[in-house]
Amino acid sequence: MCPKKYPAKRLKKLKVGHLKSGSSDVKEIVCGFCQSSELSMATGPMLHYANGKSVQLSNIFDSNVIHVHKKCIDWAPLIYYAGETIINLEKELERSGKLECSSCGLKGAALGCYMNQCRKTFHVLCAMKILDCRWDLENFSMFCPSHSSLRFPKEKSQFGEKNSKNNSKLTQMNLGVSSRKGVTIQVLCGSGLSTKEKFLLVKFGATIGASVSKYWNPNVTHLITATDVNGACCRTIKVLMAILHGCWILKIDCGINACIEALYLVDEEPYEVNLDNYGSRDGPKTGRLRSLDNDFSTKRIIGRGHEFGGLYILDTEAPSLFKDLIFHFIGDFVPTYKIDLVDLISAAGGFVLGCKNKLVAQVRDGRIAPATAFLVYNLEPPQGSMLKEEGPVMLWKREAEVLAATIGSHVISDRWILDSIAACRLQPFTV
User: Fold this and answer.
1) Would the pTM of this model clear 0.85, i.e. be above it?
2) 3-state DSSP helix/strand/coil percent for the chain, to nearest 5?
């Protein structure tokens, strides 16, 4: 069935908020479809276009720029991409600008029911909150609750009448898989899982229509990890990255089993990991709450604050864990381990400076504050180290201390970095 077409009219001017002169009010970017400035896992990022092209951050407040959520674009039936050019964005805004959402009553409702005679239209984000909507994720189609008993074409061709009821239940869950916290699952990832547990995770992902990633990436929304008899997870790079990105970190043994039994994602909080095998507590929850605080500044990006790229960024955001901190490594590290440390520091908002002479020079000329410089030595000498076995760690530590006395910086071990991330708070400077 084709999407309903409506005669085009002049494009309604998009709301982008306002900035009162002489006040601390901020300009809010509002999506042209759903009329909301909210940003979350469900909405995806706010995208900015002018003349069909993506706009750089420094130009997003130009008068000709259109702002739309990625999720709203994905489910607008006439929009598509030709290379890097978005096609029919303005036409879809014209069409949807005359259609009221059957849920919230605001205009911009681009998504219609797949039943051609049905006149109901929705913002996709509003429809996602309606339990009885049914979804075809492959073809970006939806049946409203009044017609949820009908079948999509692929169901008619691939499933007999005997199986249509079960398939209907799954498609009903696919897009609406969300916890009561309102976060829609996009990507699951496992950490420290056995072969059997990996199979269980893949089964759960297939059941609810979520993708499962073998490797860590910033799009992961839920990290599923094995735990020991004390409920502690193994401290892996995936776990540390998930803490820094504010993901849910859940126990495989009870959380996923409960979800599979219920056929949807149950409330995550009872199954959240709160301990790792080094004794660090509550890092996942702290990281998740920190990430929620950071969302405020993501959607309110202009106001009184510090300048960045021609814009003024509000100073109300919760800072990254290692924001403005400079790290320099001393001694031998296994190359792959050092790469992981650099990636973690970068994800936490810190910076690694490889050249000792450059570090000393920038501290002395005032470009780096001594209190923000950290000299990192390795607590465990790698196998095959060129140094003799007698006290290499002490040699590295002593070298770091001599340099720290010269420039006034901190001396830390690599374990301090890992412990700080695992707890999602800076640890005491004990060496």
Assistant:
1) no
2) 35, 20, 50
